[in-house]
Structures are given as C-alpha cells and as structure tokens.
Design a protein that fits this description.
Largest sheet: none
Distance between the termini: 81 Å
Protein name: Transportin-1
Oligomer: single chain
Structural class: mainly alpha
Organism: Trogon melanurus
GO biological process, one term: protein import into nucleus
Helix content: 55-70%
CATH class of the domain at 599-736: Mainly Alpha
Strand content: under 5%
Radius of gyration: 29 Å
Shape: globular
GO molecular function: small GTPase binding
Family: Belongs to the importin beta family. Importin beta-2 subfamily.
CATH architecture of the domain at 599-736: Alpha Horseshoe
Length: about 725
Amino acid sequence: DEPTRSLSGLILKNNVKAHYQSFPQPVAEFIKQECLNNIGDASSLIRATIGILITTIASKGELQMWPELLPQLCNLLNSEDYNTCEGAFGALQKICEDSSELLDSDALNRPLNIMIPKFLQFFKHCSPKIRSHAIACVNQFIMDRAQALMENIDTFIEHLFALAVDEDPEVRKNVCRALVMLLEVRIDRLIPHMHSIIQYMLQRTQDSDENVALEACEFWLTLAEQPICKEVLTSHLVQLIPILVNGMKYSEIDIILLKGDVEEDEAIPDSEQDIKPRFHKSRTVTLQHEEERPQDPEDAEDEDDDDTLSDWNLRKCSAAALDILANVFRDELLPHLLPLLKELLFHPEWVIKESGILVLGAIAEGGCPEEAAGGGCCCAGGCLSLPVPPSPGCMQGMVQYLPELIPHLIQCLSDKKALVRSIACWTLSRYAHWVVSQPPDMYLKPLMTELLKRILDSNKRVQEAACSAFATLEEEACTELVPYLSFILDTLVFAFGKYQHKNLLILYDAIGTLADSVGHHLNQPEYIQKLMPPLIQKWNELKDEDKDLFPLLEVSRGMPRRAVGGGAPALRPPLTPVLSPPRPPPLSSVATALQSGFLPYCEPVYQRCVTLVQKTLAQAMMYNQHPEQYEAPDKDFMIVALDLLSGLAEGLGCHVEQLVARSNIMTLLFQCMQDTMPEVRQSSFALLGDLTKACFVHVKPCIAEFMPILGTNLNPEFISVCNNATWAIGEICMQMG
C-alpha cells in the first residue's frame, strides 16, 4: 500500500541524511539508479517521496558526484508519459530550492545555461501542474540574479504575462510570486509595464484563492519600499485602499482557529505551543515546497509547529501593507480611508467593526501591525533589535478626529466580543503618545481605568493585548502614572493569581516597564508591600533549572538600558537581543526602581544568581572534560543571572558591597569574562561595569587580571561584546583616575 511505500522511502531518506557517507559504494549507486528508474511512478505520493530522496542525496555533496543526475532529469522532462515528466519536474524543483547557489556556479559547469531555457519552454505545457513546476523552478533564481536567468529575463517576463490569467490557482500564485521578486531585483524591466502590472495585482489581491491573494498582496509591501512607489501608485490608491481594508477582516477560518466564539477561557491552562515565541519567516528566504509533500515525522519536528494563525496570512499582509503605505503617502491616504472608516467603526457586525479598529491602528505612528492582526511580529526581527524611531503614518491628519475616536475606542474595550476588545487594546496603544499629551483627566485616566479592567478580563487573548497595551502606555506616560500607582499595583498583583503561563510572562513585562517608567516613586513601603511578596513567592516556587526563571531574572537585553544616577554614560551597554519584546522584565527593573527598598529581598535573589552562574560554569567544565558523559549546559541561565546581578548592582548601588564581600562573584566573573560564548562575555562586562560603579573596592584587586581580558575583547566583530568591554574600561578609568 502507498503509505507503507512512502514511509519506507522517508526512513531511507533519514538514513541517507544521517549516514550516507558510510554507505558502501554499490548500495549508494543502487539507490541512485532506482530513484531515477521510478521517478515516474503512477502514485503522486511516491513520486514526491522519490523527489525528496533525490534532493537529500544531492544535498550530501552528491550533485558533483552524480554528474548524470541533472542531464537525466532534464531528459525525462521530454517524456510523453505525464507521470515521468511530472516526477522529474518535482525532483528538479526540490533541487532548485535546496541547491540554487551551487547550480549557478562554475563547480557544475553552469547547468542553468541549459536548464533555464528548458524550463521556460514548459510555461506553455498543457498540464497546469507542469506549468506550475516550471515557474517555481525559475523563481528560485530571481533573488540571486542568476546569470542564465538575467540573459533570458525578457523571455521570462513575456511568458509570465502570457500566464497572468491562467485558470489554475497554483500557476497564478507562482506568477504573482515571480512579479513580486522581480519588483525587488529587476524593477527596470517592469517599469514600462507598471500600469498593467498594478491593475493585474489589484485583481489578484482579490483572487478567490486566498493563497493567490496573499502572494499578490506581498506586491504592495515590496512596491512601498521602492523609490518609484508614490509616482506609480498615487492614481491607483482609490482602488487599492478599499481592497486592502477588505483584506483586513478575519476570515471564517481565522475565527475558528482563534476560537473567536470562545469568550471565557482564562481557566484553561496554556498548551505547550501557546507558550512558544512566534515569528514570521522572511518570505523570500523560506519559499516552502508547497506542492504535495509526504509528511515526514522527522521533518515535522523541525518545522515551526506554532498555531497556524501566527503564520503569515492575508489579514496580516494587508495590515502590514496599509501600515507601510501610510508611511509613504502620509495624510494623502486619508481621503480614501476616512469614508470607509466611518462605516466600519460603527458597523453592527463585529467582524467588520473589528477590521475598522485594526485599520485605525495600522495607520497610526510606529509599531508593528502584524502583532495586532493575530499574533507574532511581521518585522522579521525588526521589532527585536535596537528601537527604531516610530514612523509617523497618517498621524498628523488624524489628530483632529482623535477627540471623537479615542472615547469610541475606549468604549470598544467593553465590547461583548473578545476579539473586538483585544484589537481595541492594541489600537489604543498606537495612539498612547497623543493620549498622554492631553490633560490627564480627558483621556489618560479613562483609558488607564478601562485597560486595567481588561487586564483582568476573562479571555486570555484580551488579557495579553491589555497587558501589552498597558506596558506601552506606561512607557509613554512615565511619572504621569504616579498618582494612580496604588490602583495599578492592586490590578497587576491580582492578575498574578489569575493568569495562565503565557500571559504571566507578559504581566512580568508590564511590571518591569512600570518600574522603569516611575523609577524611585515605587520606593514607598505601601507599594513595596503590595508588589514584592507575590514576585518573591513566584521566585521561590521555581527551581534553578526552570526556564520560567528567565522572565523573572531577565534584564532587557534588546535595547540599551537607561543608566541611573549622575555621571552615567549616555548609552548604557546594549545587552544581548532576546526573542521576547525588548522591554525589561521585572526583578532587575524593580530592583533598580526600589533601590534601598529592595534591600530586604535582595540577599536570596543575589545568592541564587551566584549559584546559577556557579552551577553553569561547573557543568561546562565537566562537559568540556567528558563530553561523552555530560550534557552541555544551557548558558542562558548564566546570562540572565549575570544580567540580574547587573540590575541589583545598579539598583542597590553601594548597598551591594556587603553581598559581594560575602560571595565569590569576582572569581566567577573572571571565568565568565573568558567564556567561549560571546553573549556570556557581553553580560560579564556589563556586570563588571556596574560593580565598578557600585563597589570598586572589590574590583580594584582584580584590575591587573581583568584589563588584558577586556583589551582582547575590543573586537568590533562582536559589536555588543566590544561595546560592553569599552564601557567597563571607561568605568574602571573613572575610578582609577
């Protein structure tokens, strides 16, 4: 039966992957020959399995050692038998995906010179599956500007235009994908046809097949980054804007996947995959093998098995496109948007109203619209790097409408649909800067009151959105929040007992941001009494090897931390980028804010951090001596512990001296500063700088040993390590005089 045959092929593929180099020569030759003999199997599943097997062998450096493979596959394309032609094309497509650079190199005598013209012939084939394979093969070589493709570029574009209205969705999708990539690398060839291409993409963005519509929607994202965007697109905005806005509605499948009909789920524990960080993979880099591929159990583990909705979809792409176009056209978008917004925001159907609130957020300043459109971040890492100045969007033109819109959005925070409440949180956070610029009683107080209620919502998605929005509001409002601290802390502490695992991490973030925003104002006995017992209780519940310590321990390692006190450097060393949002989670921020108020709690926290560093170093030493007996340690534990020690040194100042005196931290620091992992050295130098400022008496005896290590790390190849080493040297010089 087919499943058994396919599974045996995949088991063979896994053996090839792991042990091909040790196969006896006759075995390897036999497998290669049988693959080519059976590439035209009657079963499409078996053909796909053989294709995977062939490309796995090829990826083992065998393309050079299997010179007859490409000529034979290209030859099989001429077969009268459909199965043989389709099987050979399927294998070639996988090889093109996995080995595109090698195929365009002298190492193989540039086979693309023959392959590309050959593929182009099949654009006119009578079978849609073959046409689709042919375009997908050529598409692999666009981004790298393969020489053979560039020589045939006009023929390629001509053939694409001929397939523009193909009846097969897979073919249309590949045509759209090709045009999007050509826009990036050969816009010169598209400019003469730009009007027709834009008209075509407007149609395809509304294609009945969502995969085609999504591929076409990418076109607007790419076009927005081209210098000619304004010139070529202005006259089409009147058609484009309603199409993008329409694409921002949740589809029925989105609502099912998001459990949009479930209003109360706070008591349901999070599943493992709820807790994973979510990312959007860059589209042009990871073009998936979308054709029929058998499911390999081993491959399944490697793939991002995140909830489907964090995948890129039409809603997110439309929102991201509108956001980026708002930065290109600014207020020129508003005449096209405002009539639509009026209708959407007050619509009786919740799905339509929700999309209107998303539109309103997408055109505001700064941020990342994909987070709102259903989780994850569309910035492919952009949100995780050093902070970028917010982009203005249509903010200037919107200001006159905000006195009417903000109260309406605050009202939407109490909507009966959870998905409306959660999007209202996000959109309001995009206008937080404006809210804070008005007299506090007008908008800040009502917004804060409602957001705090939503933090205690019975729906987990709303809790998450409200906590994130509140953290943004905290950053904007800073000390404006001081009069309401008691009320804020009561809410955040109550949420401790209410939240499931994933939202607890976001709650920690909101607490850390609050501490950063109000600073020493938090150092009041009443506030300390509210906040510290639940934080310390969580801290005590967790074992040393529990990764949930990270959010409690971590200092923000994605952005430069603001330095406290006089004489501090303008730029505190940026610590390592992490996979969470770039805000400081709590204990370090709380220690910095509470300063002496943290003293009663600091000893067990300090000791535990030292223990974590010590344990990790010991484990690393055992692993280095006997790698076959011991596992490599997870050095993240050591990194976050070093970072919290930095936070303690910064927050407690000279009070940290007695803790340092009673521990072996300087000896441990000497080892950490020489660790092979750059992130460990980076955090070590940050801690050294903070200890130099807080208790130089303990650093001074070590200067002779430390300075040469600092010197060898002045290597800009590891920029953050280099920055932190430079900063620590500066602090030492200040003390030494």
